[in-house]
Design brief:
The protein is of the alpha/beta class. Helices cover about 40% and strands about 15% of the residues. Strand 1 and strand 2 form a beta hairpin.
């Protein structure tokens, strides 16, 4: 299914809602949604590191796990992953391993972003799969949500 800017915004809004839920629960507000090749919702998740006491419980990792279980396959070439923040090294590695077809993210992460900002893991020599990447979808909303949360939690 061909995706357009309106579709990307729709799914990113859902990811932002999941991020809001995470933030209200005391988690860094990041949400992720995986959509199938026909435009159907496959999986969604928000950060759960604090609640699950699990350092790997990032929104992207959880969404990838749920998608694999739902589809009965870890090959996710036909899927699009929407996430509100540029993935970290662990998540970027999992995205490559899961063979996501398209990664769409909101805000760049100047500290740990490993898709475009700090380094580009999907395009590096260690990556056997290179997903398409589209950054900056609803970037302002994604960035404001994160900045507001960090501002409240640093006081």
């Amino acid at each position: 299914m061909k995706r357009n800017y309106t579709t990307h915004r729709q799914w990113m809004r859902r990811a932002l809602e999941l991020a809001r839920v995470a933030g209200e629960a005391g988690e860094v507000p990041v949400g992720a949604v995986i959509v199938g090749g026909e435009g159907e919702l496959i999986a969604e998740a928000e950060n759960r590191r604090e609640r699950d006491r699990d350092p790997t419980a990032h929104a992207e990792i959880l969404a990838l796990r749920f998608a694999g279980r739902k589809l009965g396959d870890w090959h996710l070439e036909a899927c699009t992953l929407y996430v509100t923040l540029e993935p970290c090294p662990m998540c970027a590695g999992a995205i490559v391993q899961g063979r996501i077809g398209l990664l769409v993210y909101g805000a760049d992460d100047p500290k740990t972003g490993t898709v475009r900002t700090v380094l580009n893991l999907p395009e590096s020599a260690v990556s056997f799969h290179r997903p398409q990447v589209l950054g900056g979808i609803l970037e302002g909303e994604c960035r404001r949500q994160l900045q507001a949360w960090f501002s409240r939690h640093r006081r």
